[in-house]
Design a protein that fits this description.
heterodimer, A: 283 residues, Uridine Diphospho-n-acetylenolpyruvylglucosamine Reductase, domain 3, Enolase-like, domain 1, 5-stranded antiparallel sheet, 11 helices, 14 strands, B: 788 residues, Aldehyde Oxidoreductase, domain 4, 7-stranded mixed sheet, 29 strands, 25% strand
């Protein structure tokens, strides 16, 4: 199929983006890597009158350490995350996760800002943002605001980003020697969206867990932090804990059926993933 | 006919690189969508969103006013331009169908049926206008469950037909029920094989170009069957056959899809005839999911009886399949079920066999013959049953096969279903498979791994394949489908050889195979041979490329043409050189004297003399430098082939995932022309087998809505899902041709699924469960294991 006709602009400054958003409102869509948007246009699932291509806006690019945060510009492409030594050092969860995102051709174009803004419930990066306790930096005409990841994902393809805002960057706390990360997903084919996936982050204090986050994706309308992770506080990361969490996690999740897996199967697979991902983190 | 010990000269039998492949690797192939004709317009279709609905009215006024729109057509606009078709063939007794029109008339009967056509200056404009057409629909209850299709309470889809039965076939040889009742071990099981489709890289497409000036209809068609389409178009458009030219450019895959008649394509031709200008239709990926034909969708109940010594005494098979609202033209949709009935059990020395096949109508996309046609089901069900009964009897599945296969020395052999096997190699193929798998060691490894909770599964399957069909399959039933092919070869003045043949090349290398055969038969280098394929205006009449027939049928025609040309060239050379033709030979484009091997002249010299200086040559019989050979199989339905497939998989019992680790194939396609291309055909078929066994399933809901009509949701296997594949060959040439080659294009998908099924069930065996619903998805595996 061919997309409906649309106009296309490629501004170089954020102010131009805000002008266009204010003028066109709902008729405009922001184009970053285009790996989700272009197929929906070609399938006529979406027919915006205007595409605002933000790929030339330098303010949205770049990776840097700022204080105790790794700042990842919204236009950072998956392939850059995959190969970045800074990411491997300061946010190793992203390095683990990014290889599960589709295929190299998609990773060459897709951006972290696009993935977080679209908020596909089966995507890897939104769950990683939750597990990492990341902060999303939103830029509007009148300034910046910071939204923690755990309030950013509101509902299916719906986020806290305002209609007149652009996602500028994501800030990830720098990993310390007390942090352990794990990632796993179960997808029918290499590169597919997961039936169920898990991004996990543990902060250790001595021999016990101070804080555990288990962020599941592919479960419901948004990625979710399982409250079962609270059971880990003060316990060592060992086989007994893994068994406890495997048993507890299903009750904390409320999956929806889809073509690849029923709700019951997703609960089962979530439990399997807890065993595998935490098992990896024990090593 | 064939002296099977006869060696045919190279390059027959040699794994030479394909001539002409550089064109594709350089991106310089030319497909339908690359063609631009003067005054060409584009067509897009509005398709039914409902599985079953009455069309109360269609309002296209707003759409017609949109930019670029040339005209909008609905069913009534085509009256008098194209006649409806009805896909029944008389060799399937009792088969029935209703008249089908290119676009839905009053009522749509599947989601995806064409309702209106928009012709515009561009495809995008045509799609905009198609979106703007308003249809007032009245939804009707859809018939989607094939199990209840024949119940008296179920509404009849085509009231004139009386019921929802399209076709029924029964085979009752010997006394299968009696023998099974007396067997020591009996297994009864039901198999569900879900709907699939094929997804060629290049979707369907054509440019119809009717020229009112000379009344000639030219159709540039992504097709496997140009002459068959010429005959179909002549029947339904009232244009004489000789005024229709079907030209097939490069084709990007087909898998049996591009042999059928589709409403959107017929509408495109009708519209070209009305508008008197070229119209291009390229099916997009989304509309292909409901606009193409599907395959499979069977429920097969089977019963098998075995004595405690492993001797199988009887097999019963009851197949039910749903084919959508119409039998598909011109081949009918009865053939897949027929092949399930006649091929099940056909590899075993079995006299007591009973089969029933029922084909029913339903409100889903039409189903028809695609790669493998019923034979993958026959193989999966038979081989699945053999493994189940072997396991129940505590016997090794390979041992049970050894006891029951048709012996290699039993030929000629007629199966219980009446197939005359000329010469096959079931036993030696199995032994070769066991050898290349190192079967006993593999079993030991599997058993050792199970101690460590690693669940490997090993499966084997034996298959029989019908290739290179005779007129008995379609032609005698009244379909305009020739089983014959002819090849014309010419010596050019330059000494090169040009050839023309009616088959097509879908990218699999048919042209390369024919080039090798002609180079061998005439005695010229391959790069001296040029091929013209797939053009009714420039090639002899032929059946096209389907049912693994290009090599077996057209290859033999090419061999005969090449041999005749060679004889003629030797006669001419003999006259010129004042030698007996028997004393001369042609090799690599040179004419040699046999006695001392000396080069006496080149074909270039001969070509120049014949074409430009040939007055008064004293040659008896005046042999020409153009020769035609032709061939058709006549005395059996098929050239039968056989082989054996092995599969190794790993089961993850926690997730239900099945990982294919390795596939082995031993295939006997007679004389291989290019072993490398034979291997690639097998690998491609095995890739298909991985897809249909583990991934591919078209899911319909109860309303007849396709749930996964995109490449995101319809899971085709990709390179990452492919295991290593090891290929070996047996060679039992057919005696029905000089070439001795049979087909191989479908072998992998016929034998592969049964081997994968058996490997999956072997991996599940420690848990005491098995699966029979294909594809074997994680959810089905976990359900069998009782874990969800």
């Amino acid at each position: 199929m061919k997309p409906h006709d649309f106009d296309y602009v490629r501004p170089t400054e954020l102010d131009q983006v805000f002008d266009l958003i204010e003028r066109h409102g709902d008729d405009a869509r922001i184009l970053a890597g285009g790996q989700s948007l272009m197929p929906t246009l070609n399938m006529r699932l979406s027919a915006p009158a205007l595409l605002i291509d933000i790929n030339r806006i330098d303010a949205l690019k770049g990776l840097s350490v700022e204080g105790d945060m790794l700042r990842i510009g919204a236009l950072t492409r998956h392939v850059e995350l995959e190969h970045s030594p800074e990411v491997a050092r300061h946010a190793p969860l992203l390095t683990k996760a990014i290889r599960h995102v589709a295929h190299p051709a998609v990773r060459n174009r897709g951006t972290i800002g696009g993935s977080l803004s679209l908020a596909d419930p089966a995507a890897e990066l939104p769950a990683c943002a939750l597990a990492l306790g990341a902060t999303l930096v939103l830029r509007g005409r009148d300034g910046q605001r910071r939204v923690p990841a755990n309030t950013f994902f509101v509902d299916l393809y719906e986020t806290a980003r305002g209609e007149k805002e652009v996602l500028e960057a994501v800030e990830v706390p720098l990993a310390t020697s007390s942090d352990r990360f794990g990632f796993g997903e179960l997808a029918r084919r290499h590169g597919d969206f997961a039936m169920v996936g898990l991004a996990a982050a543990a902060r250790m204090a001595g021999g016990t867990i101070e804080r555990l986050r288990l962020a599941f994706f592919g479960i419901g309308n948004v990625p979710v932090l399982s409250s079962a992770a609270d059971l880990a506080a003060g316990r060592p990361l060992d086989a007994d804990l893994v068994e406890v969490l495997r048993g507890a996690v299903g009750e904390t999740l409320d999956p929806t059926d889809n073509l690849q897996a029923s709700a019951a199967m997703k609960k089962h697979l979530a439990s399997v993933l807890v065993g595998r991902v935490l098992g990896d983190m024990m090593e | 006919m064939t002296d099977v010990s006869e060696t045919l000269a190279a390059p027959i039998g040699v794994s030479v690189p394909r001539p002409g492949i550089e064109r594709f690797t350089a991106g310089r192939g030319r497909y339908i969508d690359d063609l631009l004709l003067p005054r060409m317009a584009h067509i897009a279709f509005l398709r039914s969103p409902y599985a079953h609905a009455r069309i109360k009215s269609i309002d296209s006024a707003a759409a017609a006013a949109l930019p670029g729109v040339i005209r909008i057509f609905t069913a009534g606009d085509l009256e008098g331009v194209v006649t409806p078709w009805e896909a029944v063939i008389s060799n399937l007794p009792g088969i029935k169908s209703a008249p089908q029109f290119p676009m839905a008339k009053e009522r749509a009967t599947w989601q995806g049926e064409v309702v209106a056509a928009v012709v515009a200056q561009s495809r995008a404009q045509a799609e905009d206008a198609a979106d703007a057409i308003a249809v007032d629909w009245e939804e009707l209850p859809p018939l989607t469950d094939m199990v209840t299709a024949l119940d008296p309470a179920t509404p009849v889809l085509h009231p004139d037909l009386g019921d929802n039965l399209c076709f029924r076939m029964d085979i009752d040889a010997g006394d299968a029920p009696g023998r099974i009742a007396g067997a020591d071990i009996v297994v009864e099981e039901s198999f569900r094989i879900h709907r699939q489709t094929v997804v060629p890289l290049e979707p369907r497409g054509l440019i119809a170009d009717f020229n009112p000036g000379d009344g000639i209809l030219t159709v540039h068609h992504s097709s496997q069957v140009p002459h068959i389409m010429q005959a179909v178009f002549a029947r339904h458009f009232g244009v004489e056959e000789h005024r229709i030219r079907v030209i097939v450019p490069d084709v990007g895959g087909s898998f049996g899809l591009k042999i059928h008649v589709f409403g959107d394509e017929m509408t495109t031709i009708a519209v070209s005839k009305i508008l008197g200008r070229p119209i291009k239709f390229i099916a997009d990926r989304l509309e292909s999911f409901t606009g193409d034909v599907h395959c499979r969708d069977h429920i097969v109940k089977a019963k098998i009886g075995m004595m405690s010594d492993g001797r199988i005494v009887g097999l019963e098979v009851d197949d039910l399949t749903g084919i959508g609202p119409y039998s598909v033209y011109p081949r009918s949709s009865g053939v897949e079920a027929m092949l399930v009935a006649i091929f099940s059990g056909s590899t075993y020395d079995l006299k007591d066999y009973k089969a029933t096949a029922r084909v029913v109508f339903q409100n889903k996309a039409p189903m028809c013959q695609l790669r493998g046609v019923g034979m993958p089901i026959a193989c999966s069900v038979t081989e699945g049953m053999v493994d189940l009964v072997a396991r129940k009897g505590g016997l090794d599945p390979v041992e049970v096969r050894r006891k029951n296969l048709i012996p290699d020395d039993a030929y000629p052999y007629e199966t219980a279903a009446g197939m005359p096997f000329e010469g096959l190699s079931f036993q030696s193929s199995l032994e070769e498979l066991v050898r290349i798998m190192d079967y006993d060691a593999l079993c030991k490894e599997r058993d050792a791994k199970r101690e460590q909770d690693i669940y490997l599964g090993i499966g084997v399957s034996i298959y029989c394949e019908g290739t290179s069909p005779s007129p008995l399959v379609y032609g005698v039933g009244g379909a305009p489908i020739t089983a014959q092919d002819a090849c014309t070869v010419k010596l050019e003045p330059s000494g090169a050889v040009s050839a023309a043949v009616g088959v097509t090349d879908q990218g699999q290398g048919a042209a390369a195979i024919l080039t090798q055969i002609i180079a061998s038969a005439v005695g010229v280098p391959m790069d001296s041979v040029s091929m013209t394929l797939g053009d009714t205006g420039r090639t002899p009449y032929g059946g096209g490329t389907w049912a693994s027939r290009a090599t077996g049928i057209a290859g033999e025609a090419a061999l005969r043409a090449g041999r005749t040309l060679r004889e003629n060239l030797l006669k001419i050379a003999g006259a010129l050189l004042q030698l007996s033709p028997d004393d001369l030979d042609i090799r690599e484009g040179e004419i040699l004297q046999r006695s001392d091997g000396s080069v006496r002249m080149t074909l270039a010299e001969l070509g120049r003399i014949v074409h430009f200086q040939g007055t008064g040559l004293p040659i008896e019989g005046d042999p020409g430098v153009v020769a035609t050979g032709h061939f058709s199989l006549r005395d059996a339905m098929f050239m039968y082939t056989n082989g054996a497939i092995g599969s190794l998989v790993q089961l993850d019992p926690d997730t239900g995932f099945i990982k294919p680790l390795k596939l082995w194939a031993v295939d006997d396609c007679g004389r291989p022309i290019n072993p490398m291309l034979v291997d690639e055909q097998l690998r491609g078929g095995l890739a298909n087998a991985v897809g249909c066994s583990l991934f591919e399933e078209l899911s319909y809901d109860d309303d007849g809505q396709l749930q996964n009509g995109t490449l995101v949701d319809y899971l085709l296997p990709m390179a990452g899902e492919m295991p290593d594949m090891e290929i070996a060959h047996m060679a039992t040439p057919t005696k029905k041709s000089f070439l001795g080659a049979k087909g191989v294009g479908e072998a992998g998908i016929i034998g592969g699924p049964g081997a994968i099924l058996n490997a999956v069930n072997d991996a599940l065996s420690p848990f005491g469960v098995h699966v029979t619903e294909q594809p074997y998805t994680p959810e089905r595996i976990l359900a069998a294991l009782g874990r969800v």
